[in-house]
C-alpha cells in the first residue's frame, strides 16, 4: 500500500498515512487530487479506480471516506477488507466510532493503524491481538498518570 | 465539547481542537493557530523546565496543527527529547511526531537514531515495537545505515516476542524497499523463510510480505519458500471456518494470509516436485469449488474475503498458464461474475479476463463471453467498468471476431467518455491493422475513425494508414475512391483532408477515369478544403497539387494559377510561400521526364513495426499491453504489418537511427524542393518514430557498415584482443544459457526487432539490420525497477567452432543503469562462413546487492545473411535439379503449431530473408523461396519448398519442408530453424 486517507464528505482530511517517501507538497497535491476524484463518484459505482500507476480502493462509512492507494498487482477486494477491518478496530476501541472520535483522538487512530498495518503491509489481522496491544499501551499510560494541576484539569494550559 | 477522549485525555489538546472546530472562518482558524503557536513557542523557550506531560501535550498540539495542513518549523527537538522519556505515552507521542514530521535529511536524525537504538536494546517489547514502527514509518537511508544489520538479528532471534517479530519483519521490508543495497542477505535469510512455518499466524502474515519482496528480487535464494507456502496454504484452505479462531474473517479462514501465499507463489514457476504441485493444484481446485458453494453469510465482507482469495488463485493459475483445466474453470467462474449484481465483481471479472484472454488455453473460452462484454460496454453506468469492458474486447480480439469487435468499438466511440476516446481510437486502429484480412476493411475502419473521432486520431494513426496504402497496391484504388467519397462531406475533419490530400496526390489517377472523379473534380474538392485548414495541412495539400501536375497534365494551368495567386506566393507563412514558389517554378521549367522522376510515386515503406502500439503503451503505462498480447496477435497471424514492439524501446530505436526524417508536412519528401533526397534532418519531429526508415533506408545506420574497400576486415579492425571488445578467449568457462533461450532465439528467426528477453528486473529489446555478410545489432537494456543496476556488464562469446565462423564485436555498455532507464549496446557481426550455433550473450549486474547473472542466445542465425534471389519457374527447377546430391537436401515433415494462414506464412518466409517466388510451384498451395547466403568465405545458394497439408490423414495440419543448398550444413541448419516457425 502506498498511502491511506480518511476524509469527510466535505473533503476535510481526517487522517493521512504515507508509506512511500514523498515531499509535503506532493502529499498535499495527491490528497487534493484523490479526494476530489473520490468525492465525484456516485453511489453504486465500483470501489476501484485507476489512478496514475496505482489503484485507488475506497469505501464510505457514514460521513467518512476511507481510501487506500495500492500497487497495480495488489488485490482490490482484500484491500477493501483492510479498510473494513480498520473500521471495526476503531469501532471496537472507541465503542461505535464516529468522525468526532477520530478528530479528537487522532493519535489513537494512528496507533491503531500502526498495529494493524505497518509499512503498508498487514502486520496483524486478528482484531483481538491488535486491540490487546493498544489496551496494553493504555494500561501503561494509566499507571504512569500523575495528578495534575487544577488549571490543567479545566483545560486552560 | 464531546467527551470522546479515551485513555489519557489531554484536556488542553481537546479544548484546542474544539476551538479550531468552532472557528467560523479560515481566518479565525489561522488566528487561533497563530495564538497557540506563540503560546507553545514561549513555553518551549521559557526559563522554567517543562515537565514531560506538558511537553507531550504541546508536541501533540503541534502535530495536530501540522495535520491540519499548516507548516511547523519548531518543536522537533522537544519531540526528540520525549523519545528518551521512560513514560510510555510521552515516548509514543514523540515517535508519532517524528514519524509524521521528520524528513530524512533532518539534522536530528542522529539523535533520533540514538533513541531508537536505546529502545531496541531495552528488551522491553512495547518499547522495541515503538522504535521499529518509527523506522518502518520513516524508512530513511540513515536509518537503514544504522539498523539494517540489527533488525534481521532481532527478527530471527529465538527469544524475540511474536509482536516484535511482526514489526521487525515489516520494518526490514521497508528498509529493503528504500535501500536494498544496505540490507545484506546472510544466514538469516534461510531462517526468515522458515517463519512461514511459525505457529503464530500474525508472524506468518507479517513475514510473508517480506519474503515475497525478497523472493521477487532474489528468486534463487528463496526458492525453498515454495513448498513451505504450498503446505501452509493447503492447511488453511482445508481448515474449517472456526479452526483459525480470530484469524477467521466472516467465516473465511485467514483471507489476508491466503492472498499473500498465493501472491508469493506467483514469484515462481509451477513447482517441479510432483507432490508439491499436486497439493497446490488441489488447493486451487478447492478454492474454485468453494466459489460454487452457497455463502456462509450474507455480509459483503464474507463474499469479498472469499472472492479476494479466488481472484488471487486465478491470478496464479494465469501466471502458471499450464493447466488448461484450471484455466477454463477460472474463465467460467469469471463468466458468472460478469453478470453479478455487485459492480465491484463485474469490474474485477472483466479485468481478470483480460489476462486470461492472452493464454492459448483459455482464449477460446474467454471469447464465448463476447456478447456479455459488448453489453457491458453499452450499458454499464460506471465509466471505469466500461473501460475494463473495452480493454477486454481488445484482448479477446482475434481474426474470427475482429470485424464484430471493431464495429462495436466504433459505435461505442460515438458516445464514449472523452477521457477514454484517444485510447479507444488507438485500440481500434491497432485491431483493424492487426486483423485486416482484406485491406479495404482496414481503410474503411480508419476513415470511419477519423469521421467519428477525428480530434482523437493522433498522427501515428493517419501516418500508418498512408504507409499501408502505399505498401499494398491492391488497396490503393479502393482507398482513393473511399477517401474521395469521404471528402464530399461538407464538414470533414482536418485529418481526413490530410489523408485525402496524400492519397489522391499519389493515387488519384486510379479513379480519374470516372468523370465524377475526374482530375479537376478531385483538385477542386481538395482545394475547397484548403482555406479551412492549418498551415501544416495546407503545406501537405500544396505537395499534393504538384503531384497532380505530374499525374494529370491537364490540371497544370489551373494549379499553376492557384500557386501563382498572392495568397500562396506571398503567403506570410514562409513554408507555404516557399512551397508555392518552388512548385510553381518546378512545374514551369522541368521537362515532363524530370517532373515524372522527381514526383514519382512514393516507394514502399520498409515493413516496420507499428508505432501506434508504442503510443498506446506510453499512454497506459507499463503493463497495460502485455507481451502476451502482442504474441497473441502474432499467433493469430497479425504479423503482416509487423506486430509491434514494446513502448520503451521505440524511442530509443528511433533515436538510434542516424538519419532523422523530415517534419510532418513532408510526407512527400519534397520539403526542400527538388531534389527529393534533400530532406533535412529535423530533430524532435513527431514523425521520427513513424518514418524513421521511410524511403531513406540507404542512408540508414548501416552505411558505416559498408566496406569501403573489398576487404571487410577494415571495419572490424579492432578485432579480438582489443580491450573494449569481448574476445572469446578471455572468458574461461562458457556460461550456460537460460533454458528458454532456444525458444527466444526461434522467435527472432523471421524477424529482426522486438523484445528479446524480459523478467521482473530487466527488459532487453533488440533491433538488428543485416547487409551482405555484415550485421549490426542494437540491444536496449531497460531497468524495470526503481533501483539502479550497478556493475552492469555484458559479454558476447562465440562457443566452440563458432569462433572461427563469426566475428563478433561488442561495444562496452554503461556499467550503471538508473531505475527506469535504458541503455543501448551496439554489436557488430561479420559472417566469415556458415554456422549453426548462436553467440552467447552473458549479462551480469548487481541489483540491491544481489548478483544477477543470465545468459541468452543472441538471435544471429544463418538466414540473416540471406540475399533474396528472384528467378522464374524454369530457372528454379533447373537449379533445384542441380542440387540433387543427397547431402545437399534436408527435409522435415512436422505438425503445424500455428493456424495455416497463407498471409502469415508469406510474412514469415519474407522475414526469413529469401525471395518468395510467386507462380513457380505448379501447386499454388506450396511456397518456394530462393536466396544466397553471404559469408566472407563463400556464397551459398539455397532453395526452399514448403508444402502445407491442411488435411493429413491424421486430421492434423502438417508441413513438409525441403531445403536444398550447395552446402550440406546450411541445408540442415535452415531446416532445423524453420521447422520451429510454422
Automatic annotation (TrEMBL), chain A:
<dbReference type="InterPro" id="IPR011012">
    <property type="entry name" value="Longin-like_dom_sf"/>
</dbReference>
<keyword id="KW-0168">Coated pit</keyword>
<dbReference type="GO" id="GO:0006886">
    <property type="term" value="P:intracellular protein transport"/>
</dbReference>
<dbReference type="InterPro" id="IPR016635">
    <property type="entry name" value="AP_complex_ssu"/>
</dbReference>
<dbReference type="GO" id="GO:0035615">
    <property type="term" value="F:clathrin adaptor activity"/>
</dbReference>
<keyword id="KW-0472">Membrane</keyword>
<feature type="domain" description="AP complex mu/sigma subunit">
    <location>
        <begin position="1"/>
        <end position="140"/>
    </location>
</feature>
<dbReference type="InterPro" id="IPR022775">
    <property type="entry name" value="AP_mu_sigma_su"/>
</dbReference>
<comment type="similarity">
    <text>Belongs to the adaptor complexes small subunit family.</text>
</comment>
<keyword id="KW-0333">Golgi apparatus</keyword>
<dbReference type="GO" id="GO:0030121">
    <property type="term" value="C:AP-1 adaptor complex"/>
</dbReference>
<dbReference type="InterPro" id="IPR000804">
    <property type="entry name" value="Clathrin_sm-chain_CS"/>
</dbReference>
<comment type="function">
    <text>Subunit of clathrin-associated adaptor protein complex 1 that plays a role in protein sorting in the late-Golgi/trans-Golgi network (TGN) and/or endosomes. The AP complexes mediate both the recruitment of clathrin to membranes and the recognition of sorting signals within the cytosolic tails of transmembrane cargo molecules.</text>
</comment>
<keyword id="KW-0813">Transport</keyword>
<dbReference type="GO" id="GO:0005905">
    <property type="term" value="C:clathrin-coated pit"/>
</dbReference>
<dbReference type="Pfam" id="PF01217">
    <property type="entry name" value="Clat_adaptor_s"/>
</dbReference>
<keyword id="KW-0653">Protein transport</keyword>
<protein>
    <recommendedName>
        <fullName>AP complex subunit sigma</fullName>
    </recommendedName>
</protein>
<comment type="subunit">
    <text>Adaptor protein complex 1 (AP-1) is a heterotetramer composed of two large adaptins (gamma-type subunit AP1G1 and beta-type subunit AP1B1), a medium adaptin (mu-type subunit AP1M1 or AP1M2) and a small adaptin (sigma-type subunit AP1S1 or AP1S2 or AP1S3). Binds to MUC1.</text>
</comment>
<dbReference type="InterPro" id="IPR044733">
    <property type="entry name" value="AP1_sigma"/>
</dbReference>
<keyword id="KW-0968">Cytoplasmic vesicle</keyword>
Amino acid at each position: 500500500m502506498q498511502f491511506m486517507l480518511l476524509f469527510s464528505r466535505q473533503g476535510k482530511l481526517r487522517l493521512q498515512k504515507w508509506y512511500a517517501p514523498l515531499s509535503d507538497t506532493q502529499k498535499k497535491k495527491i490528497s487534493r487530487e484523490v479526494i476530489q476524484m473520490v468525492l465525484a463518484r456516485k453511489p453504486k459505482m465500483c470501489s476501484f479506480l485507476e489512478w496514475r500507476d496505482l489503484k485507488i480502493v475506497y469505501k464510505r462509512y457514514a460521513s467518512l471516506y476511507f481510501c487506500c492507494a495500492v500497487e497495480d498487482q495488489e488485490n482490490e477486494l482484500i484491500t477493501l477488507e483492510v479498510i473494513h477491518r480498520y473500521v471495526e478496530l476503531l469501532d471496537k476501541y472507541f465503542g461505535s466510532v464516529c468522525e468526532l472520535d477520530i478528530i479528537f483522538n487522532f493519535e489513537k487512530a494512528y496507533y491503531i493503524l500502526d498495529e494493524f498495518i505497518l509499512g503498508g503491509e498487514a502486520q496483524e489481522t486478528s482484531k483481538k491481538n491488535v486491540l490487546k496491544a493498544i489496551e496494553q499501551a493504555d494500561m501503561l499510560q494509566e499507571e504512569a498518570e500523575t495528578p495534575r494541576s487544577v488549571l490543567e484539569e479545566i483545560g486552560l494550559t | 465539547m464531546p467527551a470522546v477522549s479515551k485513555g489519557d485525555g489531554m484536556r488542553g489538546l481537546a479544548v484546542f481542537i474544539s476551538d479550531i472546530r468552532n472557528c467560523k472562518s479560515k481566518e479565525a482558524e489561522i488566528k487561533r493557530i497563530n495564538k497557540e503557536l506563540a503560546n507553545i513557542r514561549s513555553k518551549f523557550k521559557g526559563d522554567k523546565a517543562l515537565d514531560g506531560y506538558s511537553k507531550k501535550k504541546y508536541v501533540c498540539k503541534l502535530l495536530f496543527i501540522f495535520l491540519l495542513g499548516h507548516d511547523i518549523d519548531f518543536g522537533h527537538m522537544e519531540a526528540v527529547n520525549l523519545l528518551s522519556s521512560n513514560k510510555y505515552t510521552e515516548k509514543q507521542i514523540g515517535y508519532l511526531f517524528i514519524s509524521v514530521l521528520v524528513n530524512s535529511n533532518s539534522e536530528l536524525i542522529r539523535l533520533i537514531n540514538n533513541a531508537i537504538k536505546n529502545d531496541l536494546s531495552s528488551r522491553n517489547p512495547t518499547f522495541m515495537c515503538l522504535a521499529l514502527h518509527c523506522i518502518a514509518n520513516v524508512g530513511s537511508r540513515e536509518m537503514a545505515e544504522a539498523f539494517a544489520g540489527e533488525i534481521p538479528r532481532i527478527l530471527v532471534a529465538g527469544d524475540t516476542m511474536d509482536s516484535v517479530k511482526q514489526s521487525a519483519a515489516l520494518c526490514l521490508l521497508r528498509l529493503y524497499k528504500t535501500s536494498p543495497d544496505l540490507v545484506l542477505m546472510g544466514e538469516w535469510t534461510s531462517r526468515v523463510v522458515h517463519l512461514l512455518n511459525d505457529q503464530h499466524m500474525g508472524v506468518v502474515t507479517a513475514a510473508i510480505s517480506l519474503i515475497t519482496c525478497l523472493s521477487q528480487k532474489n528468486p534463487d535464494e528463496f526458492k525453498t519458500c515454495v513448498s513451505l507456502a504450498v503446505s501452509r496454504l493447503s492447511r488453511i484452505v482445508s481448515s474449517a471456518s472456526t479452526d483459525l479462531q480470530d484469524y477467521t474473517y466472516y467465516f473465511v479462514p485467514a483471507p489476508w494470509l491466503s492472498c499473500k501465499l498465493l501472491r508469493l507463489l506467483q514469484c515462481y514457476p509451477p513447482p517441479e516436485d510432483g507432490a508439491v504441485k499436486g497439493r497446490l493444484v488441489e488447493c486451487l481446485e478447492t478454492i474454485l469449488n468453494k466459489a460454487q458453494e452457497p455463502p456462509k453469510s450474507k455480509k459483503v465482507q464474507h463474499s469479498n474475503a472469499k472472492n479476494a482469495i479466488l481472484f488471487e488463485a486465478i491470478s496464479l493459475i494465469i501466471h502458471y498458464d499450464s493447466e488448461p483445466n484450471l484455466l477454463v474453470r477460472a474463465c467460467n467462474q469469471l463468466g458468472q461474475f460478469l453478470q453479478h449484481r455487485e459492480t465491484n465483481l463485474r469490474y474485477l471479472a472483466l479485468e481478470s479476463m483480460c489476462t486470461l484472454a492472452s493464454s492459448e488455453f483459455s482464449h477460446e473460452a474467454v471469447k464465448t463471453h463476447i456478447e456479455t462484454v459488448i453489453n457491458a460496454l453499452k450499458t454499464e453506468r460506471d465509466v471505469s467498468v466500461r473501460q475494463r469492458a473495452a480493454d477486454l474486447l481488445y484482448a479477446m480480439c482475434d481474426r474470427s471476431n475482429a470485424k464484430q469487435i471493431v464495429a462495436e468499438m466504433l459505435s461505442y466511440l460515438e458516445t464514449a467518455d472523452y477521457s477514454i476516446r484517444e485510447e479507444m481510437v488507438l485500440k481500434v486502429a491497432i485491431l483493424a491493422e492487426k486483423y485486416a484480412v482484406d485491406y479495404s476493411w482496414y481503410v474503411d475502419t480508419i476513415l470511419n475513425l477519423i469521421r467519428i473521432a477525428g480530434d482523437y486520431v493522433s498522427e501515428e494513426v493517419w501516418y500508418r494508414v498512408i504507409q499501408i496504402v502505399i505498401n499494398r497496391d491492391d488497396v490503393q484504388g479502393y482507398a482513393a475512391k473511399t477517401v474521395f467519397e469521404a471528402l464530399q462531406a461538407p464538414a470533414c475533419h482536418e485529418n481526413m483532408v490530410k489523408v485525402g490530400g496524400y492519397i489522391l496526390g499519389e493515387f488519384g489517377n486510379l479513379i480519374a477515369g470516372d468523370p465524377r472523379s475526374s482530375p479537376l473534380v478531385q483538385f477542386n474538392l481538395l482545394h475547397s478544403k484548403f482555406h479551412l485548414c492549418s498551415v501544416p495541412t495546407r503545406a501537405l495539400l500544396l505537395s499534393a497539387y504538384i503531384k497532380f501536375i505530374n499525374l494529370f497534365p491537364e490540371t497544370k494551368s489551373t494549379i499553376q494559377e492557384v500557386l501563382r495567386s498572392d495568397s500562396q506566393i506571398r503567403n506570410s507563412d514562409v513554408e507555404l510561400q516557399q512551397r508555392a514558389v518552388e512548385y510553381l517554378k518546378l512545374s514551369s521549367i522541368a521537362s515532363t521526364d524530370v517532373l515524372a522522376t522527381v514526383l514519382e510515386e512514393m516507394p514502399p515503406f520498409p515493413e516496420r513495426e507499428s508505432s501506434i502500439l508504442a503510443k498506446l503503451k506510453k499512454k497506459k503505462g507499463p503493463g497495460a499491453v502485455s507481451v502476451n498480447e502482442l504474441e497473441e496477435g502474432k499467433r493469430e497471424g497479425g504479423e503482416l504489418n509487423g506486430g509491434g514492439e514494446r513502448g520503451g524501446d521505440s524511442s530509443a530505436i528511433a533515436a538510434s537511427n542516424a538519419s532523422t526524417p523530415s517534419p510532418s508536412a513532408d510526407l512527400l519528401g519534397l520539403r526542400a524542393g527538388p531534389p527529393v533526397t534533400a530532406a533535412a534532418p529535423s530533430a524532435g519531429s513527431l514523425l521520427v518514430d513513424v518514418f524513421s526508415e521511410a524511403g531513406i533506408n540507404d542512408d540508414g545506420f548501416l552505411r558505416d557498415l559498408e566496406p569501403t574497400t573489398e576487404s571487410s576486415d577494415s571495419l572490424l579492425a579492432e578485432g579480438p584482443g582489443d580491450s573494449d571488445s569481448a574476445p572469446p578467449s578471455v572468458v574461461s568457462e562458457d556460461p550456460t544459457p537460460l533454458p528458454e533461450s532456444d525458444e527466444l532465439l526461434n522467435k527472432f528467426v523471421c524477424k529482426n526487432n522486438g523484445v528479446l528477453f524480459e523478467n521482473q528486473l530487466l527488459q532487453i529489446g533488440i533491433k538488428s539490420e543485416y547487409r551482405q555478410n555484415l550485421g549490426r545489432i542494437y540491444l536496449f537494456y531497460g531497468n524495470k525497477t526503481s533501483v539502479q543496476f550497478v556493475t552492469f556488464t555484458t559479454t558476447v562469446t562465440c562457443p566452440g567452432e563458432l569462433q572461427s565462423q563469426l566475428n563478433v564485436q561488442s561495444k562496452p555498455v554503461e556499467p550503471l543503469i538508473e531505475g527506469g532507464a535504458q541503455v543501448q549496446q551496439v554489436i557488430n557481426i561479420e559472417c566469415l562462413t556458415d554456422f549453426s550455433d548462436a553467440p552467447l550473450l552473458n549479462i551480469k549486474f548487481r541489483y540491491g546487492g544481489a548478483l544477477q547473472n543470465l545468459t541468452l542466445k543472441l538471435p544471429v542465425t544463418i538466414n540473416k545473411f540471406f540475399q533474396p534471389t528472384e528467378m522464374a519457374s524454369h530457372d528454379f527447377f533447373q537449379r533445384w535439379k542441380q542440387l540433387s546430391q543427397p547431402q545437399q537436401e534436408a527435409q522435415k515433415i512436422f505438425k503445424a503449431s500455428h493456424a495455416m494462414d497463407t498471409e502469415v506464412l508469406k510474412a514469415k518466409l519474407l522475414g526469413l530473408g529469401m525471395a518468395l517466388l510467386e507462380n513457380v510451384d505448379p501447386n499454388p498451395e506450396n511456397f518456394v523461396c530462393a536466396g544466397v547466403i553471404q559469408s566472407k568465405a563463400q556464397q551459398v545458394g539455397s532453395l526452399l519448398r514448403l508444402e502445407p497439408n491442411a488435411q493429413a490423414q491424421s486430421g492434423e495440419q502438417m508441413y513438409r519442408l525441403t531445403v536444398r543448398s550447395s552446402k550440406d550444413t546450411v541445408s540442415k541448419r535452415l531446416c532445423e530453424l524453420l521447422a520451429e516457425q510454422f
